[in-house]
Write a structure and sequence with these properties.
The structure holds 2 protein chains of 2 kinds. Chain A is of the alpha+beta class. Chain A is 33% helix and 26% strand. By secondary structure, chain B is mainly α. Chain B has 1 helix and 2 strands. Classes of the chains: A alpha+beta, B mainly alpha.
């Protein structure tokens, strides 16, 4: 997946199982491996096709995330991310690509039908499950470990039993159970056709998202839940804090270096801190 | 007027049964066609799937289930006391 994976609390066998799990996720979901299942599905001209169990499970989570966020997290942005120019390993992207940006390709998750492992989709719909796959792999890896443990991959964290997690912009918290994830546009940026591009797309436009926030960090019941909520809150811009509060999710927003917690974050962490002092 | 023979009467009954069978097959074909059209994503009367906006597991879900619900759950977190070093860093990747 092109990210470092940290595993704490695992036996040697569990560690090996976690390694196999991440390798399998990379083989199945990579946009950059021509023979990945993701690319085979996207190349397949059939309107109806059978998916592997792993792929179907991830797509089901992606569709559930789309429904829960009213489409702010969308598994059908494969064409949009390529139109923005992210069509090869990030390290190989030209910092300033002079080619013009392709047209925006809005998400169309509502046009998908998934029944067990049978997918029906309109011709030309390109999937990209990388919005949920890394966090799903973190959650699945934690499930492979019997005792208290920590799994972190590329900034997405899940733990059972407690871990101290550093936060963007400084500070830390002790996550006893659940997941924490950060979304934003401070990394994976490039220029194409004179415009700044980044990997976080707005499914409503099919273009790189615009938000008042630089980064949003969310804690939730699982890593994938935190990741999905962080993306949605980022895309909602000024409405992001309230959207998280309505769901009881603690969120921490970074704007030009300033930390802005939502009410749930203040209640769960800051008031606790004051009481302890 | 002569009475139809038993063979002619049998032929008429067979012809009637044949017409009925053809009509039934045509009606069935049209019904299947309409159902298929209604069920196709691009032609569905309502393009919005009947997925619940309510919460879901958020966990990796079984492919054998058609339940697309998604649960944000809730984390258990407390301020770090500073007694232990940072074990992981949450960040944009």
């Amino acid at each position: 997946m092109g990210v470092d994976v940290l595993v704490c609390g695992a036996t040697d066998d569990e560690h090996a199982a976690v390694r196999r799990l991440f390798d399998e996720h990379d083989r199945v979901f990579s946009r950059l491996r021509p023979r990945s299942e993701l690319n085979r599905v996207n190349r397949d001209p059939s309107e109806v096709l059978v998916l592997s169990p792993l792929f179907a499970g991830a797509l089901r989570t992606g569709l559930g995330a789309a429904a829960a966020t009213d489409g702010l997290v969308d598994p059908t942005l494969g064409a949009a991310i390529e139109a923005a120019g992210y069509d090869r390993d990030f390290a190989l992207l030209a910092a300033d690509d002079e080619r013009p940006v392709g047209p925006g390709v809005p998400g169309r998750w509502r046009s998908l039908r998934l029944s067990a492992r049978l997918l029906s989709r309109p011709p030309g719909t390109a999937l990209d499950l990388n919005g949920v796959v890394k966090a799903l792999a973190v959650d699945a890896a934690l499930e492979l470990i019997a005792g208290d443990a920590l799994v972190a991959a590329g900034g997405d964290v899940a733990t059972r039993g407690g871990a101290v997690v550093g936060l963007p912009g400084g500070g830390s918290l002790r996550l006893l159970a659940g997941g924490i994830a950060t979304s934003g546009t401070t990394k994976r940026r490039w220029r194409r056709g004179g415009e700044v591009q980044h990997h976080l797309l707005d499914p409503r436009t099919g273009r790189p998202a615009a938000s008042r926030w630089d980064e949003v960090t969310v804690a939730a019941g699982s890593c994938v839940a935190a990741d999905v909520a962080a993306k949605a809150a980022f895309l909602l811009s000024r409405d992001g804090p309230d959207w998280l509060d309505e769901r009881g999710l603690p969120g921490r927003f970074l704007e030009c270096g300033e930390v802005v917690p939502n009410r749930a974050w203040s209640k769960a962490l800051l008031e606790h801190e004051r009481a302890a002092a | 007027m002569t009475q139809p023979t038993r063979i002619e009467a049998a032929r008429r009954r067979a012809a009637g049964a044949k017409e009925l069978a053809v009509a039934s097959a045509a009606a069935g074909f049209i019904a299947v066609l309409l159902l298929a059209r209604a069920g196709h994503p691009g032609h569905s009367a309502s393009s919005s799937p009947s997925r619940s906006n309510s919460q879901s597991t958020g966990q990796s879900q079984s492919e054998s289930s058609d339940d697309d619900s998604f649960d944000f759950g809730s984390a258990s977190a407390v301020p770090s006391t500073g007694s232990g070093g940072t074990q992981a860093q949450s960040s944009v990747s």
